[in-house]
Give the backbone structure.
Amino acid sequence: MTELEFGELEVGDIPAVAELEQQLFSCPWSEQAFLETFHLDTLFVTARTGHEIAGYCGMYCYAGGEGEITNVAVAPRCQNQGIGRRMLTYLLEQARSRGMVRIILEVRVSNENAIHLYEKLGFKNTGIRKNLYELPREDGMIMVLE
């Protein structure tokens, strides 16, 4: 199994994280969008293999102990190695330590691998939002972990 080191996203990580967004998503966050998260109540973590970012994920932290996962990404060269599961487990541990008791996320209904991973982590399907995603237009599944 790949040796990983987890930690919070740092400003110096943003160019690499934004580049990964460009590689993986049809509507990627910009470097500026990531910079703006530092002024909000958020939790973003990275998974590193040596000095390279293997993946990152993040969430907004709201009042009342609710969190919303916004980003989950694993570099193509690092996929199918359990990194996403390990990274999300770390994110959820950090969220719980900050008092998050209910965590929600949205996922494309066609993203069966992600849905399966989220279910293994305890998330439950709570509904569908029609036409949530663009490029291509697609429904989003709402999942909750309590």
